[in-house]
Design goal:
four-stranded parallel sheet
């Protein structure tokens, strides 16, 4: 291995705050404060720079020295395992592997194989892996078994992890951990899986026959057509092999193919009993660096108690943010207490939603949102609680509508603008669905779909006709959300839109927005001259970094008036047109909990002061990455006074250097005696393009 390759592959340098799982490295240099190193083996030295005041080391072993520039640096060591003896099971090459793991002082002290069906050669490999695990002082993630094509090495590692899962409190008995179950034979049947692609959720169905994947059917995806087409060869290979073992992501479509693999694994988890429902596994919601990261910070509930009789009877709508986006509810008050709560729309993972929705019964029973969240569905629970609070604050009367024609916008299947790649969509940029409502003498006399914001394939004209008739007949949306939530095919409306209920909800949301405008005018007599607003996203900055001001100067807002006229307003002039922005200007984004390693989504929302028109766009912020090309390496051989240097060229990857006789003999002797290179080289300096160096 050349010196350059060693520098590129084995040494790590961290210059930003964050949490890093590095598995293994030779030397690690930390230049920033507030860094956490997790699950690592550092074979050389841990070098702490001048700015490091506190560093956290979790399940990390340093074989060399900790070199501190600042003697007052606070080094916090953490171990997550409790002491004791634990047994673990996992699948080996020829049967179940059973081990006993002894933990002392938060580290693995000893491992015994209790049961196996392997031959002596396999057992020798297993014992070699066990020695590595004990030597790793708890860093199981740093154990590399990828070179062993059998499953024995992975199996013994998983058996140890199964035992450790009891030490960490994740499981109670051997064989209950995910790693112990995931290599079991697949049970025949049909299973649905969920994964996150670049364009959004990927939902698919796998068929298992004789313990192998026999067929894969894509049920839902929003990937760019050309990239999704590139993944078809991967799907064919999986079916041919009957599994996803040794199947890599597709170069050029990495995020889409990773989302598909995660969805298949989510389905496989159900097959072996790890999970019970689609989307229940952690891997189902893993963000793969795609453009539509679904995980959101929930609206925090206040925990309100509502004394009996303090609420006016009626039905009230409210919204809040859950994991997947906006949760919309209708709360019915009867006799001064909460009598019913209906979820109108949501974008939560089905399995988590079904668990969290139980919290609505607790709210009704206690006439309060001061109830415990549902375990393993905390974020969705908070969204539901906050949506109910939003509906009841303030407690609202049944709206009265002002005469006129009113326009509204609503989101359905897609929470934000997207490109329609479906048949008939023509690759057009689609925004929110738009509806108009005509009111005469306080009664709704006409409802029309002005613009369909979802893909054309999701448009159901027959169902929309029934929705319009229902709203006119009931002079409002009344129990329409309840019909959607019930999923009752005996209801003509639901049956007509059941193939695209989210898009239908988007139309209802747009109608409700128009009715809210009408009700608003009835109360404040303020003209609603604006029909819609939206942002021209081509002018939005391509990326934003933590700690740096986001450049909004080139943003353009498109405003559409009731008379059909359209104007484009520069960001600097939005206030002149009655448009406000939710973010402070200047806006300098910061990460949560000082975690610069984690990307974060921010909502940018524009609202028109004289109407309910609003437009929301989310953008992603990450830590700034600066790529600098090494220009020169300088090193000194022990015993040689003059250092040597190599000029680097980004087009080259191998270099030669002429040594004098003495230096050559030193290197030759080191190679012959298998002497570590660290014992021969006195120092190494790498110069970047700015002539800065790091020893």
């Amino acid at each position: 291995m050349t010196l350059l390759e060693r520098l590129k592959n084995e040494d790590k340098i961290f210059s930003y705050p964050g949490i890093y799982t590095i598995k293994s490295a030779r030397n690690v240099t930390v230049l920033s404060d507030a860094v956490t190193l997790k699950d690592a083996i550092i074979n050389g030295n841990l070098i702490l720079g001048d700015d490091v005041k506190t560093i956290k080391i979790a399940n990390t072993k340093v074989n060399g020295e900790i070199v501190k520039s600042n003697e007052n640096v606070n080094i916090i060591e953490e171990f997550k395992w409790k002491d004791g003896t634990f047994e673990g099971n996992a699948q080996g090459e020829h049967g179940i592997l059973k081990v006993q793991v002894q933990v002392e002082s938060g580290k693995i002290k000893n491992i015994k194989v209790l049961e196996h069906k392997e031959n002596q050669e396999s057992l020798n490999k297993i014992n070699k892996i066990l020695k590595q695990i004990v030597a790793a002082d708890g860093n199981l993630e740093g154990i590399d078994v990828s070179n062993d094509k059998t499953i024995n090495s992975a199996g013994i590692l998983n058996a140890v992890k199964d035992a450790i899962s009891q030490s960490s409190g994740e499981t109670e008995k051997p064989g209950e951990s995910i790693v112990a179950k995931q290599y079991q034979e697949l049970q025949d049947g049909t299973y649905e899986g969920l994964g996150q692609g670049y364009g959004g959720p990927i939902r698919l169905k796998i068929e298992v026959k004789d313990g192998k994947i026999a067929n894969i059917e894509i049920l839902e995806q929003s990937e760019t057509g050309s990239y999704f087409e590139m993944t078809q060869s991967m799907l064919k290979k999986i079916v041919e092999m009957g599994s996803i073992d040794q199947v890599d992501t597709v170069s050029g479509a990495t995020v889409s193919s990773k989302g598909i693999l995660n969805a298949i694994q989510d389905a496989m988890f159900q097959s072996v009993g790890i999970t019970e429902e689609v989307g229940q596994s952690d891997i189902a919601m893993e963000s793969n660096g795609g453009g539509r990261k679904r995980g959101r910070k929930p609206t925090e509930p206040q925990g309100n108690a509502y004394p009996e009789g303090s609420l006016l009877d009626g039905e009230y709508k409210g919204e809040a943010t859950g994991f997947g986006g906006t949760i919309s509810v209708t709360v019915r008050v009867k006799g001064g207490v909460i009598s019913k709560i209906t979820v109108n729309s949501h974008r939560e993972t089905p399995s988590y939603y079904e668990r969290a929705v139980q919290i609505l019964e607790d709210i009704i029973k206690n006439n309060s949102t001061k109830v415990d969240t549902i375990s393993r569905a905390t974020v969705t629970s908070k969204g539901l609680l906050s949506a109910v609070e939003n509906a009841l604050s303030p407690n609202k009367e049944k709206p009265e509508y002002a005469d006129g024609t009113w326009y509204g916008q609503g989101r359905g299947h897609y929470p934000k603008d997207h490109v329609d790649h479906t048949s008939g969509g023509g690759g057009q940029l689609k925004t929110a669905t738009e509806a108009s409502v005509k009111v005469e003498d306080g009664k709704i006399v006409a409802v029309n779909l002005e613009y369909h914001g979802d893909d054309e394939a999701y448009k159901t004209p027959e169902g929309y006709d029934l929705i319009e008739q229902y709203i006119i007949e009931h002079n409002g949306i009344e129990k329409l959300p309840e019909i959607f939530a019930s999923k009752d095919h005996s209801q003509p409306i639901y049956d007509a839109v059941s193939s695209a209920t989210n898009s239908a909800r988007g139309y209802v949301n747009a109608i409700n927005d128009a009715l809210n405008r009408s009700a608003k005018y009835k109360k404040d007599n303020m003209q609603q001259e604006v029909r819609s607003i939206r942002m021209l996203k081509d002018n939005f900055p391509k990326s934003a970094n933590y700690g740096e001001e986001v450049d909004f100067s080139k943003l353009m807002i498109e405003v559409k008036y009731l008379d059909g006229s359209i104007i484009q307003v520069p960001f600097s002039e939005i206030e002149k047109y009655g448009i406000t922005c939710n973010l402070p200007i200047p806006f300098i984004p910061q990460p949560d909990d000082n975690n610069y390693a984690e990307e974060k989504n921010f909502d940018l929302k524009f609202t028109h002061e004289k109407s309910t028109s609003a437009y929301t766009f989310d953008f992603q912020v990450s830590r700034k990455r600066i790529k600098k090309q090494p220009s020169k390496i300088e090193f000194k051989i022990k015993g040689i006074e003059t250092p040597y240097s190599i000029d680097l060229d980004e087009e080259e990857f191998m270099y030669g250097i002429t040594l004098d006789t003495k230096a050559f003999e030193i290197i030759q002797n080191a190679i012959s005696n298998d002497t570590p290179i660290e014992d021969v080289i006195d120092f190494v300096k790498v110069f970047d393009s700015d002539d800065k160096n790091k020893e």
